[in-house]
Write a sequence for this structure.
């Protein structure tokens, strides 16, 4: 049986549908205590005094630690995992992010003290008894304001709130000249608003120090347990890595927010040793809004030049990116190498320049959120193209066809070298737009739209043809770009004596279905049943090493590492088979789970070879027993999925309410292992991207208060906000990994946002070209735009 | 101070001493180790904690444990019988109505409530019925298909939801 390409039902689903999933907060350890963190209610304030005496005397309280205790213990802050330097070559400003703050809090939610008690309710009761005196200081929340002279300063060590400035592309003077010489220039000033990732499972961490073994165990809601262990051990606590086990069990969604190493993880581990008991901390939703790293938050000016035929001549982008108060793990990479490098889009734009300033503000940290930088790049490009089409009176689809990079397969034709550092692996862009137009019934829609307008109904269509860089890896490349870690992946394929197979992967599944898709790959490669394969992930004691799951990298990088180990298994298996069959290795072929001597019926099965490897009585001389291989896979390039998203909306002229009538997505994510799971990934991404366009956005007021920090106040898409999606696929295989896969996790979230906004602008075209309408497109904003 | 309650959960009778302020979801999770009901928010908005009380879907994060004294509570752990998934659970598996699985127990319990009252709901009715449940993974597309699958299965087999 062939598994690859089949919509195999998920292995994971039995435990999740029956309530038997094991999430971090479901875990109870003997003697476990509960932690509650006292957080700053102010965005910027000096701590004048902290009185914990009453709280400490509260029945059931075990211990209370404050920033002074952390400082006295010599604990470092959590580090940045990526370094971007200033244009002049100086190192980015990297102020410390302490586990608990002793002197000056820098955002609402900054941790000040941790109360540890016999149960969670008691910890919360006692937290209310801690008295803290503050001197409230002025705050700044908007990054463009933060870099102006006289703005309140977040860190003394970062003058003008600048973390770094950065540029990429062709020389600025060349781009300026090309823009100046253009027949038409479209300019947009906009805010790509701050988003809350909002995995439905709140973050949670359990720290357990066992003094009998001098061993630490951390259970945590993490997308990459090994990286968390490395950062926590080597940079924060200075504890020995080999004495620390980090387990990320079932994790209830991540979307980027659970990539990063958070202060609470180190805090429960350190404090557990102090009190000699396990400690559980589980975030509530309000804390999640205040402390889970947010996404986006760019203030951008973008200009695109065109010649008289509609060919793009140049692109110039200026962005101020909000980092928040502290540098989260991957934060510096997001507005730079995951954003600036994608500004070629699908177009042949000959001159591109991007300037980025990363600014500190008195807000929660901003880091990777589904798509991370690529949605911001796609949003500005696709908004520019549709706006230009409206301004120039051209058809937005036609304008795209005119500017697409011609097809290249990356095998017989070279990859496409962009103006912004990356080389695309393979691409064929026209077919996704052609298919999208066919699915939407474009000509008919334009007729319907004209008819509707006559009747006072506002229908609109919006396009987005996007590209992204996924399979975040080549270590040498990301190292040159500032990553402080390699971005390969590891995998161990352990064939058991009975021929059953355990696979240990450094990728981590928190909804992506690795236990199913990875098993499909292994089953096909080995010619055995999926039931005979177990995929193990998320435990640093079982899995040798891992870089985790983000950037749509699991299958392209983690899957390829598995394939590498399988190749080694089969190579050794062939030696054993040749011995048993008394044949030369080169005369054997492997298919259907057995080695056969070519042209004969002599064969031996995978299970027999496995047993022989572990019971090596009759065995090739000099060959080691066992059938167990590990590999590290470090790709040669990123992968570049692309696609076409089309939205159709109706705008209610009386209320400004936008209704999403249809959403069409044609994505090319390379080869597909499990179509059902890929479709599911696209659906989920679309919902998040549409959410950004129409509903979502974190709002800080001028004092730095997060004013919509609950599910009652922050509008996330619900079932009746969305239509069923119409999706299809094209397949352009990745030329440089063994599976030909490109990654599907973020595509939906990258392409959909501008498609929806463009559709609303198209619907509003009778009111002229509207440029100052910001996401989310709430009824109030849309109504105002119609009446300005 | 604690209060004595007697409640039948998934067909089994429990008598417990609970704190008056204890929420049902924590009673289930902490006292009984029934961790299928999850806590995803503080505002009764996400629905991950949904259970059935006397057959009606209720958010166990906004119900006090003392309020279920004398009632029949069904949690997601009580749906599968003899190792066979309930048709709603099977529908979620067949139609890929879940990814991370965190919202899934609540979704399934809300679906159970819906299908008891409306055995053959339209897509619009399903989407409306799920208004109290957030899912961040699936975009709801396949959750709708899952509930349709379950509705069809229950009708074909002429089976009651509970």
């Amino acid at each position: 049986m062939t598994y690859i390409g089949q919509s195999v039902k998920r292995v994971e689903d039995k435990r999740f549908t029956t309530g038997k999933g094991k999430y971090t907060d479901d875990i109870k350890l003997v003697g476990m205590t509960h932690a509650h963190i006292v957080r700053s209610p102010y965005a910027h304030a000096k701590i004048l005094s902290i009185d914990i005496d009453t709280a400490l005397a509260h029945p059931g309280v075990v211990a209370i630690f404050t920033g002074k205790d952390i400082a006295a213990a010599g604990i470092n802050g959590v580090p940045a995992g990526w370094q971007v330097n200033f244009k002049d070559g100086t190192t980015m400003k990297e102020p410390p992010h302490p586990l608990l703050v002793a002197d000056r809090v820098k955002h609402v939610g900054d941790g000040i003290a941790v109360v540890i008690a016999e149960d969670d309710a008691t910890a919360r009761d006692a937290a209310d008894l801690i008295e803290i005196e503050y001197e409230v200081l002025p705050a700044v929340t908007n990054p463009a304001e933060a870099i102006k002279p006289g703005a309140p300063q977040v860190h003394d060590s970062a003058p003008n709130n600048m973390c770094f400035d950065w540029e990429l592309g062709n020389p600025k003077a060349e781009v300026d000249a090309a823009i100046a010489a253009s027949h038409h220039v479209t300019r947009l000033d906009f805010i790509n608003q701050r988003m809350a990732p909002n995995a439905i499972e709140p973050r949670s961490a359990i720290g357990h120090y066992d003094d009998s073994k001098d061993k630490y165990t951390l259970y945590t809601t993490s997308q990459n347990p090994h990286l968390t262990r490395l950062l926590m051990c080597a940079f924060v606590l200075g504890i020995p890595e080999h004495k620390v086990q980090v387990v990320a069990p079932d994790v209830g969604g991540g979307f980027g927010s659970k990539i990063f190493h958070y202060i609470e993880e180190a805090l429960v581990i350190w404090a557990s040793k102090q009190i000699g008991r396990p400690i559980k901390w589980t975030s509530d939703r309000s804390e999640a809004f205040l402390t889970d790293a947010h996404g986006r938050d760019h203030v951008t000016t973008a200009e695109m030049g065109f010649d008289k035929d509609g060919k793009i001549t140049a692109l110039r982008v200026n962005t101020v990116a909000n980092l928040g108060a502290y540098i989260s793990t991957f934060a510096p990479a997001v507005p730079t190498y995951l954003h600036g490098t994608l500004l070629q889009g699908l177009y042949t734009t000959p001159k591109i320049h991007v300037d980025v300033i990363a600014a500190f503000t008195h807000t929660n940290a901003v880091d990777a959120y589904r798509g991370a930088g690529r949605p911001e790049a796609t949003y500005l490009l696709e908004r520019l193209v549709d706006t230009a089409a409206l301004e120039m009176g051209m058809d937005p689809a036609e304008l795209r066809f005119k500017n697409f990079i011609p097809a290249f397969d990356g095998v017989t034709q070279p990859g496409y070298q962009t103006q912004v550092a990356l080389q695309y692996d393979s691409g064929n862009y026209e077919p996704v737009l052609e298919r999208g137009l066919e699915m939407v019934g474009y000509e008919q829609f334009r007729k319907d739209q004209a008819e509707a307008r006559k009747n006072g109904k506002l229908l609109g269509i919006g396009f987005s043809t996007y590209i992204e860089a996924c399979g975040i890896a080549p270590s040498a490349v990301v190292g040159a770009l500032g990553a402080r870690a390699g971005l390969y992946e590891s995998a161990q394929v352990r064939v058991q004596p009975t021929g059953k197979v355990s696979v240990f992967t450094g990728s981590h599944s928190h909804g992506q279905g690795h236990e199913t898709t990875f098993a499909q790959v292994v089953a096909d490669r080995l010619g055995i049943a999926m039931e005979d394969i177990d995929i193990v992930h998320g435990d640093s004691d079982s899995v040798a090493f891992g870089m985790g799951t983000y950037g749509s990298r699991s299958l392209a990088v983690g899957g390829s590492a598995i394939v590498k180990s399988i190749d080694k298994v089969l190579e050794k298996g062939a030696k054993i088979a040749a011995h048993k069959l008394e044949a030369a290795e080169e005369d054997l072929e492997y298919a259907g789970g057995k080695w056969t001597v070519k042209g004969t019926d002599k064969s031996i099965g995978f299970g027999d070879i496995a047993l022989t490897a572990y019971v090596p009585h009759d065995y090739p001389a000099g060959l080691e027993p066992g059938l167990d291989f590990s590999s590290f896979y470090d790709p040669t390039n990123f992968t570049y999925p692309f696609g076409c998203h089309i939205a159709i909306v109706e705008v209610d002229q009386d209320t400004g309410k936008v209704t999403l009538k249809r959403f069409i997505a044609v994505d090319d994510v390379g080869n597909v292992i499990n179509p059902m799971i890929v479709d599911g990934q696209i659906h989920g991404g679309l919902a998040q991207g549409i959410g950004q366009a129409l509903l979502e956005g974190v709002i800080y007021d001028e004092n730095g208060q997060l004013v919509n920090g609950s599910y009652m106040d922050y509008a996330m898409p619900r079932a009746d906000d969305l239509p069923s999606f119409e999706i299809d696929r094209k397949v352009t295989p990745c030329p440089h990994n063994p599976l030909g896969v490109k990654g599907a996790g973020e595509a939906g979230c990258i392409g959909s946002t501008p498609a929806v906004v463009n559709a609303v602008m198209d619907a509003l075209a009778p009111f002229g070209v509207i440029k100052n309408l910001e996401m989310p497109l709430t009824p109030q904003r849309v109504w105002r735009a119609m009446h300005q | 101070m604690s209060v004595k309650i007697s409640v039948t959960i998934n067909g089994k009778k429990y008598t417990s001493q609970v704190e008056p302020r204890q929420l049902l979801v924590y009673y289930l999770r902490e006292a009984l180790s029934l961790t299928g009901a999850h806590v995803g928010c503080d505002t009764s908005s996400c629905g991950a904690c949904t259970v059935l009380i006397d057959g009606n879907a209720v958010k166990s994060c906004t119900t006090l444990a003392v309020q279920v004294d004398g009632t029949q509570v069904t949690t997601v752990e009580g749906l599968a019988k003899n190792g066979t998934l309930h048709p709603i659970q099977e529908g979620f598996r067949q139609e890929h109505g879940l990814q991370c699985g965190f919202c899934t127990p609540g979704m399934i319990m809300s679906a159970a409530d819906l299908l008891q009252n409306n055995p053959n709901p339209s897509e619009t009715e399903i989407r409306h019925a799920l208004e109290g449940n957030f899912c961040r993974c699936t975009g709801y597309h396949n959750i709708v298909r899952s509930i349709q699958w379950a509705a069809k299965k229950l009708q074909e087999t002429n089976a009651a939801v509970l």
About this structure: Chain A has three domains: 13-137+201-252+258-291, 295-473+637-786, 488-633. Chain A has a mean pLDDT of 97. Chain A is about 30% helix and 25% strand. The first helix of chain A runs from residue 13 to 17.
